[in-house]
Write a structure and sequence with these properties.
Layout: E1 2-7, E2 13-18, E3 22-31, E4 36-42, H1 49-55, E5 61-64, H2 73-82, H3 90-108, E6 111-121, E7 127-129, E8 132-136, H4 145-148, H5 158-165, E9 169-172, E10 177-181, H6 184-196, E11 203-206, H7 213-224, E12 231-238, H8 243-257, E13 263-269, H9 272-280, E14 287-288, H10 292-311
Parallel strand pairs: 10-12, 12-13, 13-14
Antiparallel strand pairs: 1-2, 3-4, 3-6, 4-5, 6-7, 6-8, 9-11
Helix pairs in contact: 2-3, 7-8, 8-9
Amino acid sequence: MLSICIALSSTSMFCFIRYMRNEMYLSILMDRASGGPLLVGSPRGGTSIETVAKTNPELIFTEPIDIDVGMTTDAAERMATHIGLEEGSDSHAKAVKLIINIYDMFLGCDCTQVEVNPLAETPEGDVVVCDAKVNFDDNAEFRQKSIFERRDFSQEDPREVEASKYDLNYIALNGNIGCMVNGAGLAMSTMDIIQLKGGSPANFLDVGGGANEKQVQKAFELLNSDDKVQAILVNIFGGIMRCDVIANGIINAAQEIGIKKPLVIRLQGTNVDQAKKLIEGCGFRMILAEDLEDAAEKAVGVAEIVKQAQKIQVGLKFEGLGL
């Protein structure tokens, strides 16, 4: 038996009860390996699919979809069989139709993922979507306005909402070292080396290659206002992004809101000498690093100092950002 609840708004919900014979898993997502949509299914639904993939990988079935051809009946029939529905049964036929409809929605609504877990078979032979998660491509907002107008910001992290207003890619994590980086790949590398040096990143924050001073200032404000952040690491490789723009953004933020956290900066690339002169003459003391490894070591080290001081309830005072 399963109680199915449908949220009508942030304050109201509609629920009803269905009896289930089987719980299955079904999803469509974009797959880099196949270069297009991937249909994923399992007869083991109603639980974490990651756990199933780890403990019973033989129960995970995939069907790459040629985006020029679309979802074929043959592919949908194979997946309906793989997830445990008997060929020739009403429930099998209904699942085939459902799979094709989900793919049409995936394509027509510019989805990046549609995940149904569990997909249930009832004793009467019905196939019911009991719970689903749908992600949409932000870049398609201009043609999916009716969908994006339903976005409920009260259900999201307010920091991520605020970052999105400035076209910043921000994801909150559970660590204590705030990161501001340009480029997703460099951001991932920065988080990895922080972990390698014994620290833990508090966020993923990519300001992008064409950020202006206002965006940089907002990014710094987000990190500076996070109570979990005990040190901030700025790692910029100036290709398209100019290092002096980053420096000016940080300095502007420092002048407007002050700097509450120790700040480690590693700059390299376009206008790096100008950026360093701006930092040296700004009146705030910031910790400069020569390379990423040096920056990570300094960020982890100063964060640990702050952490231990807070643990024994000893106050710390930083003059600017000097130690």
